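Sequence in, structure out. Go.
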Amino acid sequence: MDKDQPVLIASNTKTYVSASILKLIENKKLQLNQPILNLLSKKTKRLLLKRGCHLNKITIRNLLSHNSGIADYVNDYYFSYVGKNPDHQWTRDQQIEWAMTIAKPLELGKMFAYGDINYLLLSEIIEKQTWKSFCTAIRNLLDFERLSLNATWFVDLEKKPANTLVFAHQYSNTYNWDSFEFDPSWDLYGGGGLASTTKDLALFFQYQFEGKIIKDKKLLPEIYTYTNPRETNNNYCLGLYNFPSFYGNKGYHHGGWWETDVIYLPELNTTISVFTLLKEKCDLNPEISHKIIEVIK
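Output:
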């Protein structure tokens, strides 16, 4: 793998979605504790209300922190279906509909339940507030051009940037998957979807914490502030994990299903991103990050 080759960064996309929502809040278009009842499309609202979701009580904060109680569609059956139907072209509406058939809603705000469904709904909210496709809106809100994030784009929804190297293959032995063999729409609409390089991903995280994206100094800390009720085993905040200690260093982290990891270390003012192309070798990522920290120190 060349260091400048892009890969699918999967759930790291959630951090970009979260930052875009906070940018809309900074621009006075949304409020963090605003109920989502009137922020969704009529079709989505009808589906969720029919399933018993209390949209007048579920807030943007609940979606960002995965305690909305809305059941997710990503489970073993979903992976099995994707594996058997690699060419299926998913839509966001299909995935939201699938989620509504999985299980009854959990109690709102009572427990952490990580789910792509939360970020699919956030991508829809971004579209309704900006009147643009969510991929265009995210690019504009986060100002990829100004920050020179020139190797970051939504696969299939945007053109591959010029002068970007070919994709690297990503593998899973457990599922017998090669990323090249699947239509990327299975993980595309906010829960995942971005392609990037290690450099671009690290730069985005670094710029985020340097205040170059969200400039409101009172708002920015929300992204790494715990949302109550907090379970002892849950370090998720608003689009990233808050690690009190990563090899003795405070860190803010997110990862992706294909084992793409990024962590910002405020005490070192450093961001490290590591991609492992074989999912089952994911333990290498923290080990490599640790070695890099030792070199920096």
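Check: The radius of gyration is 18 Å. The domain at 7-226 is CATH 3.40.710.10 (Beta-lactamase).
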